[in-house]
Request: fold
Amino acid sequence: MTIYGPYDEILPEILSLTTERIKQLNQQAVYNKQPKLYEHLIARVKTPESMTEKCERKGYPVSTESALRKCRDAVGVRIVCNFISDINRCLEQLRQADWCQIIKEKDYITNAKPNGYRSYHVIIDETAPYRDIDGNQPGHFYVEIQLRTIAMDSWASLEHEMKYKHNIANPERIGRELKRCADQLASCDVQMQTIRQLINSSAGEDD
Ligand code: 0O2
Reply:
């Protein structure tokens, strides 16, 4: 058994349920003749090895309780949007959803990380028809949702890949170049948003 104990089998169920619920929010938007909420979704259960490493790094006991209650990203969904305004539309839908409550928000879009990382993170407390670690059924499960534009996502993927390349000759220079690239992409996102608004207003639509 892994750090997730009996939840090894339940976490993938929570993952599919969350993904389905988010897809339904999108289907509802499209049904209401609104633009799609996002371009694509990806979802993962954090590997037990990575969760164990996180608990150790944070000084938590390596236990199922820490993995599910102290860390709240065992289940993670990334929503990749076309435009910044779509991130806000997704957030609005999540705030209204009766199956979850947003309990924490980190706005790395308004406040980008010093390296240039941008994304909007929320932790939701999701209700699901499984017994949780506190004995409740339906249970409460934490899920981390990251919302980003395509530009933010492509930068984060490349930066993540490069993080693992050690023995780099000039890490400071690379860090500066990455930051510059992130800022340029952020300005493209703003430009794309403006273009969308111009197109929509000429077509007589909102946003
Ligand atoms: P993986 O494999 O993506 O899950 P906490 O102290 O628990 O509130 P936490 O979770 O330590 O905060 O950190 P935070 O800032 O909320 O961000 C966690 C996740 O955001 C990371 O997950 C990454 O997915 C992403 N992220 C944060 N900063 C960066 C960054 O600088 N570059 C990239 N590429 N991604 C980032 P994990 O656990 O690292 O990995």
